[in-house]
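User: quick one
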Amino acid sequence: MEKILIIHTGGTISMTENQSLGIVVPSDSHPLSENLAYLKQTASIEEDHLFDLPSPHVTPTHMLKLAKHIEMKLKEKPYQGVVVTHGTDTLEETAYFLDLYLTVDAAVVITGAMRSSNEVGADGLYNLIGAVRVAKDPESMNKGVLVVMNDEIHSSAYCIKTSSSSVATFQSPQFGPIGILTKQEVYFYHKWIEREKIHFQTVTKCIPLIKAFAGMDQAFMRAIQTLPIDGLVIEGFGQGNLPPETVAVIEEIVAEGIIVVMVSRSFKGVVQPTYAYPGGGKDLKDKGVIFVKRLSGPKARLKLLALLEAGYHRARIEAILEK
Ligand code: ASP
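Assistant: Done. Structure below.
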């Protein structure tokens, strides 16, 4: 039988609902551990409890610890796959972080739940079974870190949590899932063609992520400029445009040697330097803003973090981010 390691990190998948109070709380023991009998008939399962965190408490420091833990475990034993259980709020960030960091052959799959273990229609055990099925499948190897929820397989770079409550929350709006699970099969039908590995060992940089809004002004940008920032990611309008009042400060930030990255606040399409009016993408690009296609703000932020931690200089960072 294939050896699969399950690493628990917390989240709703490890919580139970207190039905009298109507609140969801962490439980003393992992509620799914008692329900693994079915899985244990299909694979040789080992379990690790690394953290017990709601995922809004997860930071890049935890992500790095998890990445190193996976690396270490795979050196110790030839697991065919690793399944990480995680809260859904920041799952897409941990998944992408792992993908940037890990250079392992084993399948790495991350899953979570939208409903706690004792709620009607709880999806945790179902998603965990799906994640293990994908982790066991030889086709899952070398496909990057995969997000498996609700019978779909998503690549970590493109999936986002789209709904605050639906079990179908994880979607890849631009490209769709790369595979699906049926009752009997795991089907892959897309291949992720561009993957980046970045060698970094620390997560120290301060990189705020801000979102453009109508009327965003100079005072707002000045407030950002006073922070001790190492980089800045902006979710601009459409193809990467901003209100003209922000441009002078952005120019100053770039002149200080700080990398400013533009992604779109639209969740489909890509940024490109099209408009030359003040604050338009072409204007910003000419002033040194780097345009990142395809990634969401939180993921572009993690990629910039990894690149800065790796000690790359601006030209190399620009070349990688603008690819
Ligand atoms: N707030 C929870 C968390 O991310 C939500 C979930 O797991 O679905 O930990």
